[in-house]
TrEMBL record:
UniProt cross-references to SUPFAM superfamilies, sorted A to Z: CBS-domain pair
Oxidoreductase in keyword set: no
Domain CBS: 9-66
The name this protein goes by in its record: CBS domain-containing protein
Pfam families for the chain: CBS
Taxonomic path: Bacteria, Bacillati, Bacillota, Bacilli, Bacillales
């Protein structure tokens, strides 16, 4: 999965120009309701991000001139990703940021938000469709997924998420199966899992979020 499938296009993003005054930028931030927005120059090249708190400090605490531009307040000018960046790269980069900018040929084309990242993770868990969410573990880490899929042959797996990656001793897997099963069908699934060496740690019944 690439970032190009997830990012918010530029026409939907609030931006400011780095030549705008501190006061103008503060007014835009206040009107937008965001705590941070991306900054571009006249040609649309990405210049960084500006935080509302830093603008306010400049105006009210540091006696900053309201007519000055905001170049001295820019952050993260070298933190961005590209359309074809893998999702994993975005996941690692966005952790300490309110969003991460998407840049091509030096120009801002959009942003990737935490909501989009969380949506991908929710989909991996199968939370969008809802269903029966089962957390299991096995002492056999190697070949566990193959064994699990064979055990659940015939079941519609809505989502799957692995934990404890790298462990050679044990691994946990969270799977979501389609809803609408009877108690007898659920018990059959539990019996199959346990008879094949899987330990059931937790079961949740999820509502669809679609």
């Amino acid at each position: 999965m690439f970032v190009r499938d997830l990012y918010l296009d530029l026409h939907e993003v609030v931006t400011v120009n780095n030549n705008q005054s501190v006061q103008d930028v503060y007014d835009t931030l206040k009107k937008s309701g965001y705590r941070c927005i991306p900054v571009v120059n006249e040609e649309g090249h990405y210049k960084g991000m500006v935080y509302k708190v830093h603008v306010m400090e400049d105006i009210y605490e540091n006696n900053g001139a309201e007519k000055n531009n905001i170049d001295h307040l820019l952050k993260h000018h070298d933190l961005y990703i590209h359309q074809r960046s893998p999702f994993l790269n975005a996941l690692l980069e966005i952790k300490a940021l309110p969003f991460i900018s998407v840049v091509e040929d030096g120009k801002l084309i959009g942003i990737l938000t935490h909501n989009k990242v969380e949506s991908v993770l929710e989909d991996a868990f199968g939370l969008h469709t809802g269903g029966i969410n089962i957390t299991i573990s096995s002492i056999e880490a190697k070949g566990m997924i193959e064994k699990l899929t064979k055990t659940l042959r015939g079941e519609n797996i809505e989502g799957m998420f692995t934990l404890d990656n790298g462990s050679v001793v044990a691994r946990r897997v969270v799977i979501t199966l389609e809803s609408g099963k009877s108690e007898a069908e659920i018990q059959d699934i539990k019996d199959r899992l346990e008879n094949n060496g899987f330990r059931i740690l937790h079961i949740d019944y999820l509502e669809s979020r679609q």
